[in-house]
Amino acid sequence: MRNKRFWNIKIHIMILLALCLILSLLLWQGNKVVFWMALPVVLVFGLLTILRLRKLRRQIGELLTVQAQRLKSGDREALEQFPIPAIALSGRREILWYNGLFRDEVLGQHDLAGDSFDCITTTKLDDFCRPEGVQLTYTGKIYRVSGMHTKDGETGIYTLYFTDITQLARDASLYHMTRPAVMLVMMDNYSDIVQQARESEKSRIIGAIDSTLEDFIGRMTTSFIKRYDGDKFLMVVEERHLEKIIEGRFSILDEIRKIETNSGVSVTLSIGVGRGEETLAQSELSASQALDMALGRGGDQAAVKTRTQYEFYGGVSKGVEKRTKVKSRIVANALSELIETADHVLVMGHKFGDLDCIGASVGMATAIRSIGKQAEVVVDRDKNLAKILIEMVTKDGNNNLFVDPEEARFSITPETLLIICDTHTPNLVESLEVYERCKTVVVIDHHRKMVNHIDNAVIFYHEPYASSASEMVTELIQYMGDNCRISSVVAQALLSGIMLDTRNFVLKTGVRTFEAAAYLRRIGADTIVVRKLFASTLDSYQRKTRIVNAAQIYKSCAVAESDFSSDDMRIVAPQAADELLGIDGVDGSFVLYEAGGCINISARSMGAINVQLIMEKLGGGGHHTMAGAQIRNVEMEKAKQMLFESIDDYFEAKN
Length: 655
Hints:
Blueprint (H helix, E strand, L loop, with lengths): L5 H25 L1 H37 L4 H8 L5 E5 L4 E4 L1 H8 L17 H4 L5 E5 L2 E10 L6 E8 L1 H12 L2 E8 L2 H7 L2 H20 L5 E6 L2 E7 H9 L4 H6 L11 E6 L5 H17 L4 E5 L4 E5 L11 H16 L2 E5 L6 H16 L4 E4 L8 H9 L6 E2 L1 H4 L7 E6 L10 H6 L2 E6 L13 E4 L6 H9 L10 H15 L8 H12 L4 H6 L5 H12 L2 E3 L2 E5 L7 H12 L7 E8 L2 E8 L5 H6 L4 E3 L2 E7 L3 H19 L1
Parallel strand pairs: 9-10, 12-13, 12-15, 13-14, 15-16, 16-17, 19-20
Antiparallel strand pairs: 1-2, 1-5, 3-4, 4-5, 6-8, 6-9, 7-8, 10-11, 18-19, 20-21, 21-23, 22-23
Helix pairs in contact: 1-2, 12-17, 13-17, 13-18, 17-18, 17-19, 18-19, 21-22
């Protein structure tokens, strides 16, 4: 009887009585004699049924009273007088008892005695016994439900306490949705566009930018925008509006890009957003850091910074080249001062250094030596991709230029200066121990900025629009003083780095790239010698063609996997990825291979696809046309499937 649900029985019986009464009324239309005979029977039967239901309810109440005896009398009295709603349940989720407040405030005078607690919630009873309890919504109200479990019988008794937090939850939601977030907006190429435009054209462009931004912010009634510099704006928006902006993936980026200019160059924005901070000052600081991150990743995108992470939106355009070299001169002067005060300089690149990494490091180290300071290049001679270049530089009279990481760490002093080239993340440097031991660090890199970047650098020279680290070092050398000189062999090392990252001056090549190459050519760089550094053996060429032959096309991307392993896969795979870009209809290429106990991916594009965004979803990075990733603890097929999903996400976000 305990498992019967009284109210369900009552409803069913009432329905049957109603049907009987309706049938009796229908008899009135057919045979009135039969109707008068049936009507008393229905009325008597209905009266007896109602009396029986009342008796049945009393019996159920008596039964529940007996069940409630399982609660100690002192407990029942305490719970009855308890100032908040309380309910007692069996381990089988049967409602044994509840106090008057629970009946009046939670149930609203309804009677659920003997019913299952599932009619209120299906949450596990043990979850309510945790210190934080459970937030529960019932009949339009929000409760914080906590409880305790008393051992009694097979399953024991659960006593739950319902605290009404409806108003508190609404106030908390309103507080969260009205929290101010700071947005810092910067025009990426504002100065270049305005400088080239006539006065009338300049006014039109500025007016179009202002009106587009004002229309965008005008859709949010509780937000405002202020220009605090020629190309910079400050916006303050509430969290509820920011969520809509994020859902629209910062559509203002596309709206600004549609502004027409006579030069044919699109206007682009970089946006930094600080949200979730305790104060406006902290939000402004987070927004500034996010803006730096957006600019460091090439601009034309939005970076949202919370207390724990970054989120990025946009980034479909290439970085905008800055034609002025003022920054290079300022950095060169500051770097010269650091070199002058250091007793020893170490130059280090990334793991498995390539021609750009080694070329930039060699160029910087030899330039420092030419002005009278001791400098070495930290490199693992066995684990790098530029062994031919290292041998060529060594034969040029630089026998002691290269030093192993193990040897370098013993020469570090508090006055040692470390210059990191071609990377800006601690986990990618040649030696993490050397980096951690050096107190003064300088970073020179051109890759799009990563979240976990080196944050203790005295000079962080980062230009995502530059073709290569070798180009950046070449510019710095020209401003480091008249005594700074490099040999023709070192010039060839720098030129090889530029040629590698531009794929022989095809991609990411700006005016300053050719100026740097021209400077290197003037001081003796031989392009034929440089070209020989890219030569490969017949076996390597055959392995490359084997990978290309196994490629498949997926959404304008060529994807190939290596079913073999070799010592030169870190060279062969990028070459195969470059080769795949020559196929008609291929905008991006990805080569997967196994090395170092993980699945490596080498990604390339001609600019139509941002391979960095695709690789970032897999834990990697790089820049717009050249990126990579390493995926650990997965099989090749799983890694390939993850790559396909990342490509799908990229095209979905792009559309």
